[in-house]
Amino acid sequence: MSRLLALLLLAGCPKPAPTEPPAAAVEPAPEPEAPADPIEARFQQADASGDGAIQREELVDITGGDGEATELIAMFDVNGNAQMDRDEFGAFARSTQSLLEVEPSEIAQYPRYGANAAASFAYMDANKDGAVTPDEVGPEAGLLDTDGSGDLSAAEIEPLIYATIDVAFIDVLQDKLHTVGSQTSFTAAHLARAVRLLPEDFGAGPEDLAAHDADGNGELAGDELRAWLIAGAEQAQWTWADANGDGMVDGGELATRMVVPKEAQPSLFKDLGVKGKSLDRDAFARFRALARDAFANRPQ
């Protein structure tokens, strides 16, 4: 029987007649104030049992499905106690905060990058008119505006998102991982959970830990974790950029997939030591390293 139903039943029971004069009226206790922190308020609302943790059954009430609840537990239960503690729920709430206003129909416009791209588009669309203007993007807008409308649609903005995964998004991704249980170092088991918080085509996994574990302690932290994130982002970019799957990224793909104008490509090829007009995987890695250096040294 639910607590609410029990209270309603008790409220409907007749009260026995008093045998003594009623005591003086007692002022009712003031209602407890709602927590100022909205995440804490949501946690308390979800924690129906009041035991300081959210059980899978309580998550079912929130998500509406057993499968969704099980998935969330698997993603955010860092300490492995089969429930979502307060810190873990905070990580869940923060990681989904930017997606709360994104509709499924908007996410469907991004077949590869999903909700991450939809949230990025929503962020860039400052006036929320459903299109991103040149003023909201910058000089790349002309290259991306394939229909000549003067505005950028969700589909047109996707190349810009891919072109900046390994520069503008790396700090966001690293912060996102650190919010999960306040993690600062990641074992292979932690990485297996972490990749479920990253874009679906992220190109690194727990099996890549050893390649970035500079101190050989079986964990990734700090610069090691950043290198793992960059490797995963770069692989996603390569898969995206090589649109025809021939193992090379040609000038047309550089323009339409990585937002490098044709007129800028000769100097790029020269900087990379490339004699032809296409990039193989190694040259693409050097291209992305140059982009990350330029981003790190940009005027603030």
Q: How many separate helices?
A: 17
The helix fraction, in percent, is 40-55%
Structural class: mainly alpha
Q: For this structure, what is the CATH class of the largest domain?
A: Mainly Alpha
Structurally, how many domains make up the residues? Answer: 4
Largest beta-sheet characterization: 2 strands, antiparallel
| CA-based gyration radius | 26 Å
* CATH third-level topology of the largest domain: Recoverin, domain 1
- For the terminal residues, how far apart are their CA atoms? 60 Å
CATH architecture of the largest domain: Orthogonal Bundle
Write out the strand line-up for the largest beta sheet, numbering strands in chain order: 1-2
Inertia-based shape: globular
- What is the helix/strand order? HHEHHEHHHHHHHEHHEHEHHEH
Number of strand segments? 6
Beta strand %: under 5%
Uncertain segments of ≥5 residues (pLDDT<50)?
Answer: 1-19, 97-114
Mean pLDDT: 74
Mind explaining what this structure looks like?
The structure is a single chain. By secondary structure, this protein is mainly α. The protein folds into 4 domains: 44 residues, no CATH class; 60 residues, Recoverin, domain 1 (Orthogonal Bundle); 74 residues, Recoverin, domain 1, CATH 1.10.238; 46 residues, no CATH class. 52% of the residues lie in helices and 4% in strands. It has 17 helices and 6 strands. The strands form 3 sheets. It has a two-stranded antiparallel sheet with strand order 1-2. The protein has a two-stranded antiparallel ribbon with strand order 3-4. Helix 3 packs across helix 4 and helix 7 packs across helix 10. The longest helix is centred in the last third of the chain and has 19 residues. The chain is globular, with a radius of gyration of 26 Å. The N and C termini lie far apart (60 Å). The N terminus is likely disordered.
